[in-house]
Amino acid sequence: MESILAITRALADENRLRALLVLADREVCVCQLIELLQLAPSTVSKHMTVLRQARLVEGQKRGRWMYYRQGNANAPPEARRALDWIRASLSSSARIKEDRKRLAAIMKLDRVEMCRGQNAR
Predict the structure, then answer these.
(1) Which domains does the chain have, with CATH numbers?
(2) How far is CA 40 from CA 6, 28, 37, 56, 92, in A?
(3) Nearest-angstrom CA–CA distance, 108 and 92
(4) 36 near 22, Cβ under 8 Å?
(5) pTM surpassing 0.85?
(6) Is the separation of the CB atoms in 20 and 75 below 8 Å?
(7) Which residues pair with 68 in a beta bridge?
(8) What's phi and psi for 65, nearest 5 deg?
(9) CB atoms within 10 A of CB 89
(10) How far is residue 34's CA from residue 49's CA, in Å, rounded to a whole number?
(11) How many whole angstroms from its chain centre is CA 63?
(12) Which one has a higher pLDDT value, 15 or 72?
């Protein structure tokens, strides 16, 4: 039951849903998520921690930066079903479509410079 509660808590926030859905097809640096969501680094990190605890995303630290992607086939069945449900339910959302466009533009920016600039804030 605890895994279901963790998943429902994780899905109960719009910013976490937005982050989760832009990770559908790619791995993204936390700096890029900060730029997309326009939230403080500590807030984005907390959101990503909640998603990781629910096993909806996976994270990997490389050097100074943290990279995230949606949970894969090794995720528990309830997490995979939750991801499928969220993707099906929100794929046509105007906000999610706009986030995907914005992320595509963000991905073209120099990530090192962007991350460096966010650390200066």
Answers:
(1) 2-119 (1.10.10.10)
(2) 23, 17, 9, 22, 27
(3) 24
(4) yes
(5) yes
(6) no
(7) 28, 59
(8) -110, 150
(9) 10
(10) 14
(11) 19
(12) 15
